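Title: Prediction job returns without error message
Component: structure pipeline
Severity: low
Priority: P3
Assignee: unassigned

Description:
Job completed but the reporter wants confirmation the result is attached to the right record. Sequence as submitted:
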Amino acid sequence: MRLVTACGWVVALIGLGALPGHADSGTGPVPGAGEMTASAPTPRPLVRVVQAAKNNQSAGGVDLTQAEVEKLFRPFVDAFKKIESEYIDKPDETKLLRAAIEAMQAAHPAPQQTPAEGYRPARSSSISLAAVYATALEILNARPSREDDAALVSVAIKAMVAALDSRSSYLDAKGFRDMQVQNQGQFGGVGLEVSLEKGLVKVVAPIEDSPAAKGDLKANDLVTRIDGQPVEGLTLNAAVERMRGPVGSMVRLSVVRGEQQPFDIVLTRAVIRMRSVRSRLEGDDIGLIRLTGFDEKTNEFLKKAISDLIAQSGLMLKGFILDLRNNTGGLFDPAISVCDAFLEKGEIVSTRGRRAAATQRHNARTGDLTGGRPLVVLIDGGTAAGAEIVAGALQDQRRATLIGERTAGIGTITTIFPLGSGNGALKLVTARMFTPSGRAIETAGISPDIEIIQRAPGEQPSTEGSEQERSRSYIPLDPKDDKVLQAAIERLRGAGGSQAQPSKSTSDSGR
């Protein structure tokens, strides 16, 4: 399963009770873990650990052997070998293994011992899997219970993956199931897409018609507390976990918005049914299609939306507006299909990775579903990943005029690799994306043909080019106040829908 999503952005989910079990398919089987080839000798502390194991009978009178630890850590080895073979850049194996060792020691320090006093390989030395096994053996045989041994494996995998970058991650079994449900277009939660910024939860976008949207949460809001507990110091996943809970239960979020005084919002958790495609006629002559993400149903809903709009307007239809604002991405293949729906031919996107299989070109198939009608695409700082594929291709192929603000610049593909039943999955960055003209989407993003900066009421301009300015995304609730939308409507009605690339101009509703 390939994803194109914004860096570190997570949907705040809640438990759904019994969820469909996941199948280890779609990415091919995970190879069995063999012995790691490493030149480093067995670390010195291993002798001490094994000797301690012979004398330690605290865990029900039976200690684990190294062979049992190696079996327990099979998912870790599978994850390590997947990173070795699939990650976009050649990984620093010593750095990954050291991160796993230090995380295990930090999570389970020995009695009367700080984590720093445990086994610490020299920074200059290489590390083999034997050091991981030795550390785990020491920790597990010093504990009174065997009930949560697998939790130590999760700690090691999470730390190893975190040492790669902020976009790759480890999904435990529940997180993997939640992601699969989300990709099917339905999940439980408060309906927030969030990231972590300076230790606080930042709202990327509320999902339409969700408790968060109805509660008036807005893009760029900062959540400082969840049910009175501070989020600072938590990981993003831990913060999201605090927002989960039974459908119908309430959660109180403390919010900071710009220069305003902090305030609380109480949300009632609900089942969120994603509607990735929404459409309506503007007047009786322009078809407006809003895409909020890319899931397994997006292409089906898009085809229906185009067909319905053409049927409703008939010969009066002057063109289409494709609204990609606040679209943070999703599945890779549906994003390709969406772009294909508006193209008769030509390249859509190319991907480049360390493995040959990750380097591909994706081309449109014959058949523009709109019949070649004029097209305007709306973008902003919340347009990311898969939505940037669509915007970049339609711009390069001169199929559409882009109006709005520069996109987020999330130009990487992450691939999901299941680690076996009950062991969760890896989410690894495996490729970078390029538009048909060869532009790298990562960091640079996609610039509009007509730039219109639309600020929220009272919002002050940030430093030009700053991260905050780049991540801006504000869409007025009333379409009449939406300067970007109104500019698109005027272009289709007034210029006869010409697709000629215009010179750039700037408008700012906040000045």
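Comment from assignee: result matches the submitted record. The chain has 14 helices and 21 strands.
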